[in-house]
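User: I'm curious whether this sequence folds into something compact or stays loose and floppy. Could you predict its structure so I can see for myself?
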Amino acid sequence: MIATTRSAAKDCTSTPALPAAAEGGAAPIRIGAVSYLNSKPLIEGLADLVPDVRLILDVPSRLADQLSRGALDVALIPSVEAFSDPDYEIVSDACVATRGQVLSVKLYSRVPLGEIKTLALDQGSRTSAALTKIMLAERYGVEPELHRLPLGKTVADTTADAILLIGDRAIEPPAEAFQATWDLGEEWLRWTGLPFVFAMWVTRKGVDLGRVEAGLGAARDLGLDRFRSIAEREAPLLKISEETAYNYFEKNLHFRLGSAERSGLRLFSQLAAQRGLIPPNPELRFRAVRELEGAGSRLPRTAAAAR
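Assistant: Here's the prediction. I'll summarize afterward.
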């Protein structure tokens, strides 16, 4: 049985389950997934693939906090948080990334970018907040005073010079006219020539995830094949068009952590460390593949992969 803190609609198409775990009455594995539209393809059919888990849906920043304090066994956390603990391991090549315009991570500025003195950061953000700080500092020499934009609030609720919005509420532009707008995925690619990874599946060293490791890759692969049906299901809930949702999956997002994405992660981690946003000498560790019948994609057997 799978339990969720929010409704996770299932596609009516049947999904073959991975091999059953051994009986033993163990507590269900707690999986934390991002509640935004961008993560729906990553958890498609997960309830069928690994039924004996508990799925918790929340914003990225809260998932990072829950994983840190042991309230989750594995979570789709902001990539910047994966550098924060030497015991963290990446357990799948499924991720939320972009190779250009991402659509759902935007910086809106009421003044020229080089004149920003106050910045309101979306409460749900960690990686995008770090990326915004890095690019403003590196490209404009700007280090603004930071404010928090609470969940549920809009750009109209803050007087800050600039506002960072992420997730579903950033897909459609606000009514207010701004002097400058950054799509952070597009700006990162223009600046570095590399993809950007916003979130990855991370666990702690020694946590036995059983079938979940394979299930995360298998769910992603299933989601890639169901962009259209996911868009049909989710678009009405967000009051956006089905075509907008489909194009978002198809054109704006990338869900596989490949070599180019790792290069982007390395550069991001170096810049974040230089600015004191993460500990020095950042390192990402990938868990060795668990070979399971029916598994989706597999990660290479490697230890430290980003330094």
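Summary: The two ends are 39 Å apart (CA to CA). The chain is about 30% helix and 25% strand.
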